[in-house]
Structure formats: structure tokens, C-alpha cells
Amino acid sequence: MAAGGNNRSRLLLVLLLVTSLFLITLDLRGVSITKNSRTATQSFLAPIQRGVSDLFSPVGNFFSDVKNFGKTKAELKDLKKENAKLREKVIFNKDTLGELTKLKSVLDLAGRGNYKVVSARVIGKGSASTFSQTITIDAGSNDGIKKDMTVIGEFGLVGVVKSATSTSAIVLLMNDPTFRIGVRIARSQSIGVLMGEGDNIYTLQLLDPSGSIEKDDVLLSLGSDNNKPFVPGVPVGYVKSVKNTSATLTQEAIVGSYSNLGSLGVVSVIISSANGGPKDALIPKPMPTPTTTIYVTQPPEPATSTPSATPTSTTTPQKAKN
Amino acid sequence: MNWSRAGFSALIFLFFFIVQESAVSKINFPISGFSIYLCAVLGLMSLEDRFGAIALGFIGGFILDLSPSSDSPFGKWAFILTIVGYLFSRNRESIGDFTERPLAFVLFVTAGATVTLTIFLLGGVILGENNGAFLVNIRTIFGNAIWTLLFSSILLPGLIKLRRFTLTSRERI
Lengths: 322, 173
Description:
Chain A is α+β, with helices and mostly antiparallel strands.
């Protein structure tokens, strides 16, 4: 009996492994049944994700909030008393305000680049077990979104549309290991390929061996044929460090992204771009450094000619001497 | 394992798949994410005999292949979880009944999740996929193992109870 059971199990194992390999072969050959099944799942999941997104938005960052809880415990206690009645409203307002701020920034970037965009909320993230970095947005082909469209955030590139249903779309984030984009260094105009590494670190490989690359160089997207998948001129990132390896033919650099892919609330999908792109118009401007001006004034000499402890007038040192 | 149990298990998997895709994935876990789906699949698989574990592995993998966020070829998860189902059933026979040894059960599922993700990565290498930075992958597997260890102790007793509904009176004895 046991031998019979083992044979039955072995037969099932072989049968199911062959079926799996058959499915893999079909998928790698581009058979639409397997692709459509994922699109159908996405259509099914999108309304649920949308509903859960509203409920889950305060819970999403639970762990990071807990980490900082000890620091502000006393402060929180006072605030809790004060805001008990208004807490629900405040959370809602904060959420809306955060989304509005991000949306404003995204639209500002899109406006400067003369891009025609469709903005959408992020309603889902890719599962950790799939090792791929994706997000789900609540706009789809009904809004004009198609596969291979550039997606931008408030500070620059976010990713590319991987697939779209009528009401939702999956965006492949730029930190996905399979993500590749042609980039141009704004300063030297050297071109290269930027690769995602699965984290917030990216690798830039210059195509030209004699190309110049320096720390803090700004990278812009090079653009693709008919603007698909990438429109030109979108800020992608900045050079964090240049790799000094004599073993490679071309230069490599570690790149940081302008977009914080961990906290995406609102993104925009570029539907169309002005001819020729925005050139270098979207290069992020350096933040002005605040400077403090200090005026030194000498206190007036009192009648007794003893110096005063506090400055009382704004007379200049020259005048005081006189 | 009969058809009704396979169908019921598939429904449980589907439920956890929806929970994973719509809720759990949205939580920013420290270190790395947690797959409640893998935890549930491996938990149910480890309670089955060899035939059942292989069948459930395939069903669980097939549902995971439907994940819209997945970049791997369709059928890869079915292939991997079928193999894991077989490996599970082989090793499970030497451990005995899990329902009476909760700690062994939790550790077995955690180890299973780690092995599954490792095989998934190795499968990707064989298929020529780009898996990204090595350290990031290690962190993902390590993070998932920690969260599975923590959450499976809460999840698995419920799964055992759920499974009891699908057993025939003869199987319960």
C-alpha cells in the first residue's frame, strides 16, 4: 500500500512539474493567456486595493511610527488630550494635505516640462515575496494610461507603466532590478545606462569610455522613440560617488534617486510630451543656503564712562569713537 | 486528500492572496516585507500527507503566479512550490504530527519560507532573470523569516482549526 501511495505521489509530482514547466514555456514564448490572467487578477484586485487603501493609509507606516514613539511620548500625551475630538478630522486633513502637496509638486514638475499628465493615487504595493518593486495606481486605460508610459513623482522619475486595466495600472518602480533607463549627464552631456538594484541605490554605467562623470552630477532621462517608455528630460537622480575601477572599460557610478519611492502617495503618468522635450529645464535647482547677518553695535558710553552690559543703541563703532 | 479539501484549501489560499495583495503589502515592515500568503500555504502544506502537500503546493503556486506585481514567468511559483511541497512532505514524515508540537511547526514553516524564497531566487538565476543586489535579496529573505517566525505563531493555530472543517470524520480519527 505504501509503495502504491509513493508511486501515486511521484506520478502527481512529475505531472505537476511538467505542467508548471509547460506554463513557464508558454509565458516565455509570450502566449497571451498567461499574460491576460495577471491582467484579470489586477482588474479583480484593484477595487479591493482601492477600498483597503483608504482604511489602511494610517496603518501603513505603523512600524516607523512606533520606532519614534518613545521620543515624543510626553509630547504626545499632551497632544492627545488637546486633540481627542479632532483627531479623526486631523488625520483625514493631513492625509489629504499630504496628497495635495505631492500632487502640486508633481503637477509643477509636469508643467515645467510641458508634459500632459494624468495624476493618480497609489493604492497598492508589490508583494515582498515577488522580489519585484511595483506599485498599483488608481487610474487605467479609461484615463488614457497605456503600457510603457513614464511615471513621475514630485521630484522626478518614479518608474514606467508595466500593465494597465480599465481602472488601474501597475507601475514598475525605478529601483526594480530589471529596470533600465538611458540617462544623460546634464553637465557633460555624456550618456549612460542607469540600473535599479532593488534598493534605493542605483548603478550608472557610462557608454562612452572617455565620458566625464563627477559627484553631484545631475542625471536626466535620455528619452525613447516616440517617448515610449521614457520621455526625455525627466530628472532621474544625482551621482553619489564615482567608482574607481580600472578593471572595467567604462566608468561606473553610484546614483541616488530624487524620488523617495518608499513614500509615494500621488504620482503622474505622462500621456504626451512636447516635441523635443524640456531639454535641461527640469534640472533641480540647488536649495539656497540661509545666511545670517550679524550687526555688531557698541553700547553708548555712559556719563561715568563704564561700558554698559546690554546694547541699547545702534550707533556704529566709528560714531562711538567720535 | 479529496477534491473538496483541495477546493476549500484553494479558497483559503485565495483569501490570503487578496489579504496579501491589498493589505499586508501596504505595510512598511522594518528590514523587509512579510508574506502572509506564503506562511498560510506552507502552514497548510505541512499538515498534509505527501500527495496533499504536492497538490497544495501546485495550487498555492498557481494562485501566487496570478500576482499582478510578479515579474517572473507564469508557472514559476507553481513549479517551486510543488518542489517545496515534495520536500516538505519528505521531511515532515520524520518530524511527526505538527498539531501537537507548535514550536516545531512554527520553525518548520519559517524554514520553509526561507527555503522557498531562496529556491525562487536560484530559479531566477537559472532562468536568466535579474534578481538585483545580493545583499538586498539576503535582507528580504531574512526579514521575511523574522516576520514569519513572529506572525506564524498567531496564524497557524487558526489555520489548523480551519483545516479541521475540511476533514472527513474518518480523517479526524
